[in-house]
Here is the input.
Amino acid sequence: TTTATSSSNTTDVRDNGVRQEVTLVSVDEMPLNVVLVVDLSSSLDGDQRSDLTRAIDALLGSLTARDRAATVPFATAIAPMATLTADFGLVRDALLNPPGGARTSLVDAAFAGLLLGGSAVGRSLMLVFSDGLDTASWLPEPVVLDVAKRAEVVVYGIVPASQHSGSFLGQLASTSGGDLIQVRSSRDVKGTFVRLLSEYRHRYLLSYRPQGVDRVGWHELEVRVSASSADVRARPGYLSGPG
Here is the structure.
């Protein structure tokens, strides 16, 4: 996918260095699956938690009746989740009872979010908010990053500006074709959530049938458009199996 501004621009897609023929360029507003992975550890103070609640309410209020949402609340452990549903009230309710603890199971929660986002047909967006680095997960980071390579889920991480951009969350975002967004304060999370949802809803969908490349293994993708002002963001590649 890409955020190029016009479908009339010339698009160059290369799979393992081999140029491919693009058969579909679409900007249709398809229904979305939105997964919220939210850090509710006790390090959030009252004002920060209120800002986060307002941000989640704004995001859910921006979804359409055709969209689906899910949530993975976490702290030291993962709390009961709301799976993909059109009842956004259930999603919000799942966030009302924080799991407790000062530690952060970010890697485990990201894994759960990827499974939820990849469990349904359609375009899946995962927004991960965390105010700290992982301190409690059981799963190793490489395992979850490998799942992200296979999952059709685009991940955006939203973190305080003080968090290191080279963290696990930054790697997860880049692997999936998303990005790591640093906010100055919790008051900025609301606008960031709504903006990312709007941008993702209007991403181009490019389709092609791979030609001239091996069918099995890792495929490195490169996407370019002719417009110099175009902002291109695409998955760095995909894993293909036999079949």
